[in-house]
Amino acid sequence: MKYALVNNIKSEALKGLKGKCQCCASEVIAKCGAYRIHHWSHKKTKSCDPWWETETEWHRRWKNCYPSNWHEFLFEDAENNEKHIADIHTEHNLVIEFQHSHIDPNERVSREKFYKNMIWVVDGTRLQRDYPRFQKWANGYRTAIKKDIFIVDSPEDVFPKNWLNSSVPVIFDFKGMEELVENNDLRHKLYCLFQVKINHKSKYLIAVISRKAF
């Protein structure tokens, strides 16, 4: 976690600090070593939120693109006492979840149902085959319905299959932590996969998005 409560103030991890988890109120300690990003860790238990994954530098860099008061927002379902911490919660009540590691399809569905108004940002560099597969589509013939929006007839040939049934938009980041040299490199952009109805038929669309706009 990037944040914990120190004297009831949401605070970043600093060496020697102790705090309280905003989700379960258990004691957490600041981990500020030389190799991993500074973070808070539960002292006696694993993370109380089963949806939480170990943060990478990729996660942290994305989070830092947004105002700090949007970070790690606690959601509570009063009916069943379910609590989860969203990576980003915007002023427009949109949740953004950054996903680096593999996610079980059942967990993906559960998160989408819980947060409802959300989008995913997926690290497209995790598996070596993912970007070359996308690049093959991007460099081939594409059917555009308007500027930077394309129909994709066989999404399974373009993106990882485990994201095709998502009920919310999924944005793929194929750049990751790499520093790009070529200005025309496809990885400078983000690629959003989503479904719409066209002539009463479900179609997959890809929207090309600039990082600055997102």
Give the strand line-up of the largest sheet: 6-7-8-9-12-13-14-11-10
| Beta-strand share of residues | 35-45%
Structural class: mainly beta
Task: Using the CA coordinates, give the radius of gyration.
Answer: 19 Å
Number of strands: 14
Total individual domains:
2
Number of helical regions:
3
Average pLDDT over all residues: 92
Low-confidence stretches: none
What sequence of helices (H) and strands (E) makes up the elements? Answer: EEEEEHEEEHEHEEEEE
What does the main sheet amount to?
9 strands, mixed
**Cα separation of the termini:** 23 Å
Helix content: 10-25%
Shape annotation: globular
Question: Summary?
Answer:
Helices cover 13% and strands 36% of the residues. The chain has helices at 57-63, 105-115, 130-138; strands spanning 3-6, 9-12, 18-20, 27-31, 39-42, 71-77, 82-89, 95-99, 118-123, 143-146, 149-152, 170-173, 189-198, 201-210.
Which structural traits does this protein have?
about 210 residues, mainly beta, 2 domains, nine-stranded mixed β-sheet, three-stranded antiparallel β-sheet, 3 helices, 14 strands, about 35% strand
